[in-house]
Write a structure and sequence with these properties.
single chain, 283 residues, alpha/beta, 5-stranded antiparallel beta sheet, binds flavin-adenine dinucleotide, binds magnesium ion
């Protein structure tokens, strides 16, 4: 049968969905830090999503995504038993897992789930894992318990102060660094502006930092060039050269600017999509 069956689906928070998909060949070669390119339907966009977990024995992969536009809304509307048109992967270079002593994992928003397999792998490799997780409010702090299970320490921040430190997760990291915290490595994932400020902070303290980048990506095979980023003034493709790069080498301003290149078209498409969904529901 064509496609990849959805075998589990759960709302983790408002607008954040966890989905397990039957994809045995992907599951059996997946490594932490890799991702897949998903097409919900035949005419649907290709969108990259991180491999959050997987089981080779049971043949499934786990994706966690936030509904932000047409493709993720469409995906979020699919249910157990339905099939994704295509799942390509695993794509990207796996995270370089080594013994660094103490590794600080810094993650914001939906990306907390993407940080989970990496934090787990660093822990399994014998590191002390100190996790810093942040979200807009406490309801959006997904994967908190799972992160806590595989971390030696967890530090929480929320923008509105509904849980933990009131402010950004990078401010929380900065506070700890000021207090003398000296990790061997910082690994960061989240919205690009958050990763940029993390990079600025860690550069000041001289702590090597790896960032998992999230540019607009289409083919996932190094051909289309949509996911190009400037690293140390050279063009690299996030899909085949990344997705992780030394955070200090990234041209963050260009990445942030390119992420909003189609914002007008995206919000227009979303408006039309939500209106058509309302009409269908109303019938
Ligand atoms: P749109 O309305 O089309 O776009 C909303 C915003 O998302 C845009 O302004 C743009 O900044 C970004 N975006 C749009 N199209 C793409 C695209 N093709 N590729 C990347 N970004 C795009 N999101 C998750 O929620 N969970 C994940 O695990 C996850 N992993 C990712 C891993 C990688 C390697 C990359 C590059 C991105 C990842 N993303 C993840 C981001 C996710 O792909 C986008 O949120 C999604 O493509 C948005 O599509 P849309 O049509 O719903 O929204
Ligand atoms: Mg889109």
């Amino acid at each position: 049968m064509v496609g990849f069956e959805i075998i589990n689906r759960k709302n983790l928070a408002e607008g954040i969905v966890e989905m397990d998909v039957h994809a045995p060949r992907v599951a059996c070669s997946a490594r932490p830090g890799q991702f897949v390119i998903v097409m919900a339907c035949e005419e649907c966009e290709r969108i990259p999503l991180t491999l959050v977990d997987w089981s080779c024995r049971e043949g499934w992969i786990r994706l966690v995504f936030q509904e932000v536009g047409v493709s993720t809304y469409k995906l979020g509307m699919m249910d157990v038993g339905e099939r994704l048109y295509h799942v390509a992967g695993p794509i990207g270079n796996p995270t370089h897992i080594d013994k660094f002593g103490t590794v600080a994992i810094v993650a914001g928003g939906v990306a907390i789930a993407a940080a989970y397999p990496i934090a787990r792998a660093f822990k399994e490799a014998g590191n002390i894992v100190v996790s810093f997780i942040g979200a807009r409010n406490s309801r959006l702090l997904i994967y908190r318990d799972r992160i806590a299970k595989i971390s030696d320490e967890v530090h929480i921040s929320t923008d509105d102060g509904s849980e933990g430190f009131k402010g950004f997760v990078t401010q929380l990291l900065e506070k700890r660094l000021v207090d003398g915290f000296k990790p061997g490595l910082v690994w960061v994932v989240g919205p690009a502006p958050m990763m940029r400020s993390c990079s600025t902070v860690t550069k000041r303290f001289g702590v090597k930092t790896i960032a998992s980048l999230n540019p607009i990506m289409v083919c996932g095979m190094g051909m289309c060039g949509a996911c190009r980023v400037r690293i140390k003034n050279e063009i690299r493709f996030t899909c085949v050269d990344g997705p992780e790069f030394d955070a200090w080498d990234v041209d963050w301003d260009e990445l942030i600017q390119r992420l909003s290149a189609y914002r007008e078209e995206e919000s227009y498409a979303l408006k039309l999509f939500l209106e058509s969904r309302k009409t269908k529901v109303g019938r």
